[in-house]
Give the backbone structure.
Amino acid sequence: MMDRWRAWQVLVDGVLATPHGTRRLVARHAEPPGAHFVGLDDQSAFADYFTTDARGTIAAALPGWPVTRYVTILADAIDQAGWAAAGYRLDAVETLMVRDLALPLPAPPALPIEWVTDPDVAAWCGAHDPLGERWIAPLATADATLRHAVLRVDGLPASRGRITRLTPDAGFVTSVATAPALRRRGLADALMRGMLHDEAQRGARWSVLQAAPGAAGVYARLGYRALSPTWVLVAP
């Protein structure tokens, strides 16, 4: 069984531990807070922390680190007053979810999805991304731990997502997005079903993701179950 702690580690590793995911990684294993830090120095200056510290005790250490914007906390509840006193505000409450791929899968999608493996195609997808984000680094197409899926409408990317597989049995789904003008047409559902079938065929047992606010029900209909809230805080 995939519990919340292993799913959390799949999430943290899926964000931090890929060869092309970051230039700089520092892990703190103190209890608490057990924080993981990443600074994406080759993009806009910001830093991410992933921690299980609900009380905000790590907040005192953060100002001494490079520019900090995001802290993601795995906890049933957090001390919002403690974090607010350190200068952080709650941005969103998301949901850590897992899908057992050994259970019956939803029907395969009628619409074909494309796996981006060519650097030039990756660059093109970034230039035509439905949210205007360059979400695939061209070098990442050579990284065997990453798979990038795109669903096109009228030749252009309409929905997309990424799977990170660092262990044989578990993948982390991230960067799922659909063009705003094409939402509520089942495109994200088709994309997710295609990714689930591909992961199962490639031998994975578990699929982990962090559902944005309001999206947990969408993933629940695909067979995901909620494990824990995750609290996303931001600093000015």
The chain has two domains: 4-95, 103-204. Residues 4-95 form one domain.
